[in-house]
Amino acid sequence: MNDKALSEVTALELRDRLASGAMSAEALARLYLEQIAAREPEVQAWAWLDAEHVLAEAQQLDQRRLSGAPIGPLHGLPVAVKDIIDTARIPTANGTVLDEGRVPEQDAFVVSRLKAAGALIMGKTVSAELAFMGPGKTRNPANLEHTPGGSSSGSAAAVAAGMVPLAIGTQTGGSIIRPASFCGVVGFKPTFGCIPRSGVLSQSPSLDTIGVFARTTEDAAMVAEVLYGHHESDSATSLTPFPRLLDTARAEVPVKPSFAFVRTPYWEQADGEMQQALEELVDFLGEQCFEAPLGGLFAEAANARERINLAEMARNFHHYETRGLDRLSPEMQDALQRGNQIPARDYLSAMDVPRVLNAGLDEVFERCDVILTAAAPGAAPAGLTSTGNAIFNGLWTLCGNPCITLPVFDSGSGLPMGVQLVGRRHQDGRLLRTARWLAAQIADANRGE
């Protein structure tokens, strides 16, 4: 990579090299395949990977550029896709033995968009069982004895291990923000309904959200922008024009942004290192940051989100239950049993909660650009039998807010930890711009130490 190692080059820089012809898609794919060969035996991020297929696709992308045909905004960039997202003629097993050998006939909306933008689909990354809590085989690249998080474990780990510059995941509770924090990468979850979920495993339609992993905020904005849109099969989407995320993320802030520090009602579940790191960041921001307590119904947000999740999952996964309940993990069996027992009145009452919570959040956003809070209770826990605690993510998933985690902290043991920034609904570009500004301020301060 000339003057830079592969892990130090941003996806934006790679995009420009590929577009100019300074690098071929095949050459870049080979570099990443070398990195995969070196790290995959220990990290185990991939559910499906075929090097020959990848190189053949890369060669076709090179031929297109050489022919003078138009190329897309992601031309030649390798992207990993979570294994609950359908890929035509490529296995999509949804993280369960019950779908082993399943090969979709059509691409999911997001995969079609990636291909239309010229991206190179590198392969399928490991998902927790049915995108819930049963851990997959993936290990945390920062420490192989610690969880990478979930359920988008493979996508987060693949980016963190330098196997791909970009990856796609999903979040129903905290499945993008938490693994990004644990693995030390950027994770971006857009406003609910911005990216169509057509062709993606439906666990909880009121919560399921597609997002991305990258190494920088700008890289995340670049890949997310091509995924925004509308699809008639996803009623959560709309025909509103999609935002120019990359241009907005790269723009200078008109004034210094303001931050609302929100501990959430679950602050006591954050460990001492995370609490101290956030409080030091608040001190660093000074007058640009104020504390905004969330009381009242916010304490019930976790229970409401869980009721919605479990009730909808019991409905959508009933066919798995009837096909082979005994082949599902104990965690999944328990979740389905609990979901089946939720009364309709409790589910409908929980569905009313986001409207009330968003009214309260709107008052906070009148006074700030973004909310600043924990991305996880702390660093990735030791052990591989759990994906960690999503208590600091579920509130924002329930309310549909865009979120991003920045890998700006380190634990005493050297594991990464992230700060989570939360934006107002449908102000995704503003969130990304503020996140880029904050990351730059922290980087400058670290260089000056």
Percent helix: 25-40%
Secondary-structure element string: HHEHEHEHEHEEHHEHEHHHHEHEEH
Please tally the β strands and state the result.
Answer: 11
Residue fraction in strands: 5-15%
Round the mean pLDDT to the nearest integer and report it: 97
Q: How would you describe this structure to a colleague?
A:
By secondary structure, the chain is an alpha/beta fold. The chain contains 15 helices and eleven strands. It has helices spanning 11-20, 25-43, 51-66, 109-116, 153-160, 177-183, 217-225, 245-250, 272-285, 301-316, 318-324, 330-340, 344-365, 394-399, 428-447, and strands at residues 46-48, 78-82, 120-125, 166-171, 186-189, 209-214, 259-261, 289-291, 370-374, 403-410, 416-422. It has an eleven-stranded mixed β-sheet with strand order 1-3-2-4-6-5-10-11-9-7-8, with helices on both faces. Strand 10 (403-410) and strand 11 (416-422) form a beta hairpin. Helix 2 (25-43) runs antiparallel to helix 3, helix 10 (301-316) packs across helix 12 and helix 10 (301-316) crosses helix 13 (344-365). The longest helix has 22 residues, at 344-365. The protein is globular.
